[in-house]
Design goal:
single chain; alpha+beta; 7-stranded mixed sheet; 17 strands
């Protein structure tokens, strides 16, 4: 009897020992798998870091500039506003109406881009330039549209404002000195462009808590319709190169602006309160002439 009990205890001990061994093996396997997964993650992170270091030093994202356009034109003539008479500027229905009629901003268009560094350390935004500029006499002579005034909530961080005169032989990135002043000369809207907007480089720190900087870019044209791209010159470490930036326009990241016409076949003006928001009038030109005052670059 004693021998039988001893055998039972012995076999029970062996079972427990076997289970413990199995648990130990499984724990070791899980630990090994975790170590392998951790090594895999670390390797991937290192590879991604190396790829970022070899790639462009910055990334860009389009946004909404701190500027509401107040002059638009359609290439064709509008003869009946229909439902658009009561559309409110700033709402989607007004935006859709503009898009359906192929409207374009006249004289000046603005775009916002936000640049963020991808490399470790500090990258320096040294310059900007217009690329692949294409201009031709304006076709936007059908209907001029003057939207009603709309408020601006403002930005928490002031963006860097840069102006380009597309009618110049070589458009340069200039500081915006004054915007749309109508008090100097009656019937004219005068914008002031000053010195090089990149007289000093703009420093952005990369890494886990990287910087970002927004730029509001203004493009001015004379009598011609223009499409264009933009490139930014960035220094990172020993590398210095130009990189394309997407503006978020209608043409695959390119920007566009309509030239100023002398006269339009019809004019849409905002009403002074009550009833319809917009009123259709006959031939004319509701826009003050837009001119630039450029100082020393």
């Amino acid at each position: 009897m004693a021998g039988g009990i001893a055998a039972i205890f012995s076999s029970g001990f062996l079972v427990i020992t076997h289970l413990q061994q199995e648990r130990g093996v499984k724990a070791a396997e899980k630990s090994g798998e975790a170590d392998a997964a951790g090594e895999g993650r670390a390797k991937r992170e290192e590879e991604e870091k190396e790829q970022r270091a070899e790639g462009p030093p910055i990334t860009s994202a389009p946004g909404s500039p701190a500027y509401y356009a107040n002059r638009f034109a359609f290439p064709g003539r509008t003869t009946n506003l229909g439902a658009a008479a009561s559309f409110v500027y700033g709402r989607q229905e007004y935006t859709d109406w503009f898009a359906a009629n192929k409207a374009e901003e006249v004289g000046v268009s603005a775009y916002r881009v936000t640049l963020s560094p991808l490399h470790e350390g500090t990258v320096v935004v040294q310059n900007m330039r217009v690329s692949d500029l294409r201009c031709k006499p304006t076709k936007y002579v059908g209907t001029a549209v003057v939207p009603p005034a709309i408020g601006d909530g403002g930005d928490g961080v002031e963006p860097v404002s840069v102006g380009f005169d597309l009618s110049a032989m070589s458009p340069q990135p200039r500081q915006i000195v004054s915007s749309g002043d109508r008090s100097k000369v009656p019937g004219k809207e005068i914008w002031g462009l000053g010195v090089n907007a990149f007289k000093k480089g703009i420093y952005l720190d990369g890494g886990e808590q990287s910087d970002a900087r927004s730029f509001d870019l203004y493009f001015f044209t004379g009598r011609k319709d223009c499409t264009f791209g933009i490139e930014v010159n960035v220094t990172s470490g020993s590398k210095d190169a130009w990189y394309p930036v997407k503006l978020g326009g209608k043409s695959g990241g390119r920007g566009s602006v309509a030239g100023q016409a002398e006269r339009y076949q019809s004019v849409v003006l905002p009403t002074q309160g009550g009833g319809a928001q917009n009123e259709l009038k006959g031939e004319g030109n509701p826009f003050p002439a837009l001119e630039l005052e450029k100082g020393k670059f």
